[in-house]
Design a protein that fits this description.
The chain is mostly helical and 145 residues long. It has 4 helices and no strands.
């Protein structure tokens, strides 16, 4: 029941967005929006997805077992946040006549976020490694195997 209500709400919001797009834009803006949407699909399918698959395949081979899950979480968090931050990192929309647009150092903020995610992944990996090592010791197995 809730799933259907949420689906109906999503469909209504999508229709409202389509109505806004079609009723308040000229043809040039519609073409630009269509190009942007198609470009997003192409970039995702032919650039982003293959890069992520290669990174995951390398991580699965190079990272020890306890570090794999935290690394995946870090990749998802940092990847999604980076995609959302591309417009501000690239300073798209900055205008010389309005200094209040994009008035922060977004690159430094992103670097701080990346450092925090890397630190969290490292701590989580170490905790998982120590936990796994303790469980192996409790079962009478030699640590490190």
């Amino acid at each position: 029941m809730i799933r259907r209500l949420l689906g109906a709400l999503g469909a209504l919001l999508g229709l409202y967005g389509a109505w806004l797009l079609l009723s308040r834009q000229d043809l040039g803006q519609l073409v630009a929006a269509g190009t942007w949407l198609a470009g997003g699909v192409v970039l995702h399918d032919f650039v982003l997805a293959p890069v992520v698959l290669v990174v995951v395949a390398l991580g699965a081979r190079l990272l020890p077992g306890p570090a794999r899950a935290p690394a995946v979480v870090g990749l998802v968090v940092l990847g999604a946040t980076t995609l959302l931050a591309v417009p501000v990192l690239g300073r798209f929309g900055a205008r010389s006549d309005n200094a209040t647009l994009l008035d922060r150092d977004y690159t430094t903020g992103w670097l701080v976020l990346a450092a925090l995610v890397l630190a969290a992944v490292t701590v989580a990996s170490l905790v998982r490694w120590r936990t796994a090592r303790g469980e192996r010791s409790a079962r009478g197995l030699r640590p490190g195997r």
